[in-house]
From TrEMBL:
Its EC number is 2.7.13.3. SUPFAM superfamilies: ATPase domain of HSP90 chaperone/DNA topoisomerase II/histidine kinase, Homodimeric domain of signal transducing histidine kinase, PYP-like sensor domain (PAS domain). Residues 569-786 form the Histidine kinase domain. It comes from Sphingorhabdus lacus. The chain crosses the membrane at residues 6-32. GO terms for molecular function: phosphorelay sensor kinase activity. It catalyses: ATP + protein L-histidine = ADP + protein N-phospho-L-histidine. Pfam families: HATPase_c, HisKA, PAS_7. Keywords: Kinase, Membrane, Phosphoprotein, Transferase, Transmembrane, Transmembrane helix, Two-component regulatory system. This is histidine kinase.
Amino acid sequence: MTGEGLPIALIGVLMALWLVGATVAIWIGFSLRRRSQKILRQTSRLARLLETAPAFPVVVKGDGRIEAADRFSRLMGLSGPAVSLTDLGGRSEGGLSNSDLSRLEEKVRETQRTGKDFVLPLAITGSPRRLLVMGEIADTVIYPNGAALLWFFDSTESLRELEARTEESEKAKAAFSALAGLIESAPLPMWHRSPDMSLNFVNQAYVDAVGASDGFQVVQDGIELLEPENGKTAASFAAEAMQSGLKTERIVSATLGAERRQLRVFDIPLGTDGASGVAGMAIDVQDLTAARTEFRQLSDAQRHLLNMMSAGVVQFGSDYSLIFANLPFQRLFAFRDQWLTEKPEFARVLDRMRENGKLPEVRDFPAWRGERENWFRNPEPSEENWLLPDGTHLRVLAQPVPDGGLLLIFEDRTEQAQLASARDILLRVRTATFDNLFEAIAVFAADGRLSIWNRLFAETWGLPDEILIRHPRLDEILPLMSKHLKKQSQISIIGELVRMTTANREQRRSKAVFADERIFQIATIPLPDGNALFTMLDMSDSLKIEQALRDRNAALQEADGIKAKFLANMSYEFRTPLTSISGFADLLKAGVAGELNGQALEYVDAILTSAERLSEQINTVLDYSQSEAGAMPIAREKVDVRTLLVNSAEAKSAFARERGVELHLRLEEAKGLFSLDSKRIGQAVGQILDNAIRYHKEGGEVLLFARTSKDLLEIIVSDNGPGISEENQKIVQGDGKKALQLSDDPILQGLGLPLAKQLIETHHGTFRIESKPGEGSTIIMTIPSR
């Protein structure tokens, strides 16, 4: 290489190096350019991200100056950009209040000094906006002098939502507390079961019902309010409700406190999946059930009462269908009960009434029916009078009922209409009747004024018509009436009678003697309308007849006494020779006068039998006379009835054998002692047995039956003899004397039956004959213990 070639070569090398270096520089430049563009794009994205981020970054340097985007000033409500923290406050509108600014500055200084993070809520003055500041130490590389990085978040909506949620939470807590208090103080037992059906909560009413000390004891011991039903416990019913997801209810009986009550029990699943358990409650429906029963009974009684009324009553429901119709309604309108059971509507009922001719004849029936349907909507009751084609007058009362139905009452006033039309006729008839009475009649009002009188009243007292037609007062006509009295001072008694009857409403009587010797019976009678009826009856002839009857009665009583004395004397006179006859006959039979042959003994026995029969008849006459006079003594004592009747029958057994009559006794039911006069009852039974045997055919039968109860003795004598006619039965039942006088029946021709009847009635008993001719007779005697 030459000397010239070396520089050229060196230049070439340098050029090559420069070219290489330029190429590398260009490549590095392009790389830096690409990198810077990438950084610019990232910076732009970060700036955009910061612009759209919900947080606003603010750097507070150590000297108090701040670095922040322009939109931060808009966030703070400032009119211009803020340079330092102090620029954020001290304004009436926008920025921070002095207190918030002081707190922020204090937190920033603390963070710059210690590096401690903080969170601080702030409010913008004059704006509802709320901010949340989160502070931390800034990057020391970028800001080596201890700057603080603040992130401002607009938490207005979040805080509002938080406040709303907090308010809702407080309301929910208050509502839950109120609900819990309500459940606790509820008067009906309530409880909650966990998903495993164990008791989780009970209220105080539940605790009181089961007699526990508190709810904790009930839950801990699992005390159930309800008893098992059909082998299923209360928890089983609750489990079924949770499985079905539906509320269930049932009626059960349970003991609340110490009383058995009827409860309506509800099991209510909580939540859709039953995870919240099952709630339960029990409502006491005992009173409701009793009230329903009472209402049903009251309704039945009311319907029964309505059926007993004379007015027709029908009730319709709010749907216009018939609910009830009483029997008078059915009869009045000729309805069949079968058709009414179909519950026809109101319009159909009117149609059927029209078909039966039980509605008034109207020209436009549909319009008339529509007007009657308005009764359902009228707030006040309606009243109408219907004149039916058959002449029936009906008063119709339509009464709306609170449930929207209608009650109709149909009162048949046909008779009232007829009475009203006949009122004038009755008044005329009354006047004519009064004028033709045998009594003098006048009616005085409560004020003493004469209102009604008849012709005889005016004639008796000589009162002229011109005075009477003025309806004078009592004190005005008394002076005129006094002129006709024998003693004119007695007129004051008549006036006092009328006044006392009007004032005291009491009936009064008196007599008035006229100057012509006529005697009047005066009576004053209170009338329902407050007036007094004054009547006068001429008793002159009646008093004369009455005196004559008294005189005759006295004569009859005297004759009856003479008769009684005669019977007593005659009976005594009969007994004296009868005793002698019986005594001498006994001596002859005993052989005192020598032995008697068979024929003579028969004669002596006949004499003794006749004497005994005559003595018995005399005793009967005396007893009957005493009984008729009411002087027969009765000595009650405790007597064995069966022994008494057996003795009476044995006394007649020989006579029965003699007459060929068979005597039967049935005394099994005559037990114990009974209070009676044994002598008189034995005499009565003996008389009846004697009568039955004496007038019986041979081969006949006589039955003596008796039975006793606690307060009554019944004796029956029955035979199959000739019997007693119905007419003769009435005679002997009514009057024994008449039986003796009028009857041609040999059975009644004696004092046997009349005396027996008198003896039984003296014991306050009854004597009854049941007989038919040819079929025998039955005499029934009953005697009370008292």
